[in-house]
Input
Amino acid sequence: MARESQRPAATPTRRASSEGPLPSIYRQSILRTPGSQARGLQHPQGLSASGRKVAPPTATPHARAAFRAIDSRRAAIFTPHRARRKSVREVRDSPRDFLLSLGRVLARSTEVITTSSSSSPGEGDKTVGSDGAGNETTLGAISVDDDEDEEELPKRPRLSLPIDEEDDDSDDLQPYHSVVIDDDNYTMQSIEMPRRAISEQPGGRLSMASARMSDYFNTNDMLHSEDIGLDPGFFPPTAVLDENNFTMGLEELPSPERLDSDGDRRELGRESDFGIEVPVGDINESTFMIAPQVEESPSRPPVTDDEPAFDDFLPLADQRSDDFDDEDLQGEVPALEGELTEGPRDGRLDETEVQFASIKRAQARGVVKKTIKVSKHGIEYPSLPPAVVKRLAQNFAKASGAKGKIAPDAMQAVMQASDWFFEQLGEDLQAYAKHAGRKNIDESDVLTLMKRQRQINPNTTAFALAQRHLPRELLQELRMPPPAVPKKRRRAKGGAEDEDVA
Amino acid sequence: MAGQKLYPRATVKKIVKAHSNRNMSKNADVMMFLDYMLFMQTLMKEAAIEAKQGGERGITARSVRKVTADSLAKFRG
Output
């Protein structure tokens, strides 16, 4: 006993001494201690706090889950490959890895607990049976194990039992389970708490056990689906604080409400998170998809590819042009009004405004849909009369050397293009007018636009273009651009002088 | 064009007004239509070229559609 008292590692010896079935204890100590010692040597215990940060995969599954959560919260959104890698690693995890990690964890945890736990002296009363074993476990590592072992000793003989005994004896039997559970336990008591606190919440949190609890619950509940990495990460720390922490024993599982609240939080976090969807039931964490942003600009009507058949247009268009002729004689404005009001009555077909992106239409002609085009600002608008467009198109087509008539479907495409053009034109002009601080769109805006379109340049003035394309009556409407400023000459002069100087 | 006006001015005004949500000065639409004519010129020229390259007879819907995006981009302010 003197020896034992000298050693800080006394607990394992006492435990070994416990009157229960000794062989198991022997086995334990023999099997374990060397491993734990060796591991302790390999990995100095100073690493315990930092080592986990450095190498998450070697840490306990619980720690891994925590890491995953943090990562996914902060960075994993933009680096899916990272998550994938992790998952692969996990898959590759062999029982050996778990055992290694277990040994590491045990070595550390035992020390910590021996110092802190008050329960150990009570256990220490038990008789010391095997000194040899105690000697081997110099680290006193397994004080925590002791607690469990005492209870588990009777059960010891059945090797097959996975849950209770795994940590002690069954290295071969079910390493994975054992690791998980052990980790949880240790987590709750000693090790994981500080880690968690460091990694997640720098602010000193007294109730770390609660944090443990939540995670513990998760891992324990879904033993194998611990991979739902996001969940613990989304717990707000305050909520964690709320829980009653130390009252809960190891065996106690969090209450069902806790679960519910967790779920809620989870969902919330998920929604807020850049549209990342994590399949809940899925074990593999790496499978997440970025939810496409399905929303379109609300103002625009949904894209319907229905376009009026141009065949049906033609007769109407002909009537139209006749109308135009008649109205022309009468004067412009009333004719136009008449035409506009007459449009719907004519059964004139309005196209839905189709977005630029959807240029594919190839619609079955003959599907006639009466739709009213509505602009971005919610204003209905007519489209240019097809006759006008057709005339223009044919003129220009002839001018550009194309032979023959323009097919009806081609005309349809041209109509579509002109609709788009006017939409674009309106937006651009609006932008210019707004920039100039005007309420109205001015000729100057159009001039600016044409300049930017490179239709107007020093060689071709707007007036020249107008003269080329517009009939005289419209030309007269145009305000003449102010004559070129005579500054030019001066500038040229200056340039010449410069050259002379040079 | 004889005897026929080039285009319905009010219609053009309405279209542009609907898209820009702004009123326009009295004769701005003339310039707009001039711009539109230039656009049509470009469009049809490109379509004719495209049709020729594609070995089509005359301008087809396909050729027009193919050049629509480019022409629009060209006339983007």
Q: What stands out?
A: DSSP finds three helices and one strand in chain B.
